[in-house]
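One chain is below:
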Amino acid sequence: MIPEMIAAYARWWGVAIVCEDKSDYWLVRSEFLSMQIIRQDSLLVPATLCNVKISCGGTLCALPLPMAKAPTNVNWESIAQCDLLTFLAGQLWRAEELQAGLRESARFGDAHEFLGDRYDFFDRPIVDLWMRAFFEHLLGRTLEAPQGWEGSAPRFWMSFDIDCLRKWKRMSVLKHLVLTPLTLLRGQGRSWLAKTWEALWAHFPERDPWYTLPIMQSALQALPGLHATFFWLGHPRDHLAHRYDIRRAVYAHWIPRLRNHGHQNGLHGSPLHANDPEALAQEKFRLEILGNRPILLHRQHFLRIEPGITFRHLERIGIRLDSTMAFNHRTGFRCGSCIPLPWWDLEEMRFLQMRELPFCIGDWTLHDPSHFNAETSLAKIQQMAEWTQLAGGILALDFHELYFAAEYPGHAKFFSQAMQQLMQQGFQSWLPEECHD
């Protein structure tokens, strides 16, 4: 597990660093320097944790270190005496989720009881930062751009979860009618008429207030060089309600249409099928038929996974990049990473043929989409972009089509402001290369 982590980061940065298992310690070496790190075979969160000041990319920052007693400047000899590499691998591949008491929280993509909630542990991509600092120490130089990047410009990945294309479905219309007496008693007759008129027009899906795909496409076209990934539901239902049937013509034509404009399509797997590879494969097949292209990207709806199982199913059906590992209730770098790395199967002890790129910013975790301060949210994005750039990773954002609707005033404008800000910071729009249509 440890040599595989070293190799994965070495490939990302394009450097010659190897790790050897010496039974009772890890020997990590480059052409110029080698270090021995005592192995304790502990994948779990350490009982003691403090921040040490360490140079990463020429910037001095505080990073958590297991077994540290107090904040101090970095001392690589003392660091070599703790099991730093196993600690990092345990955070990167969520080893604490093997604990029975944490598995239920892990299913929902949250961090309740995890180290992250207790210490704001994942407000920074701590695994990526440690690995960059460690490599720079071994090499005796500052790392530049990751392997294969043209220029040193940082990247951001814009993705959309397409969850709710219709507001006025059959059940919502019935609910509106059932509540008519209560609405009239409250003196809300004008509001009742407006919603009734809205529901009648929504008989044509393109006139539904939540049918915002044309607005989203216009926002993307207004920003040259911006390309996005759209995650579509391959199954009409989730555990809560009927959402939309992607096979209906009014929705289906968007898959090839967006691809022709340089965007990507991916699967937004139903939480009903997180433990059902055959059903997930059927969802994927529906999208592939509509777009006449293989679907290689995935994010689980509601971020609901079955730890140690769902990812194995995704590998089996041909998914090559997943972006499910994130927080449902706040921003942050879940797994401590913003780099697309192969996922390590903790039970089968092997790399899956699938990479994981956690997203760190969701529009619903960044702020309340119905009431927010754009300046505060833009400042948060800038802060996380700076951490991502220092880590040498990719800033992954996840927005929803629902919040482009008129009932969420200002949110569509905020999206454009956020994208413009990133581009002004020098970030370039990124799409997974091996997943291009």
Q: What stands out?
A: The chain has 17 helices and 16 strands. The mean pLDDT is 90. The chain has three domains: 2-139, 155-167+212-427, 168-201.
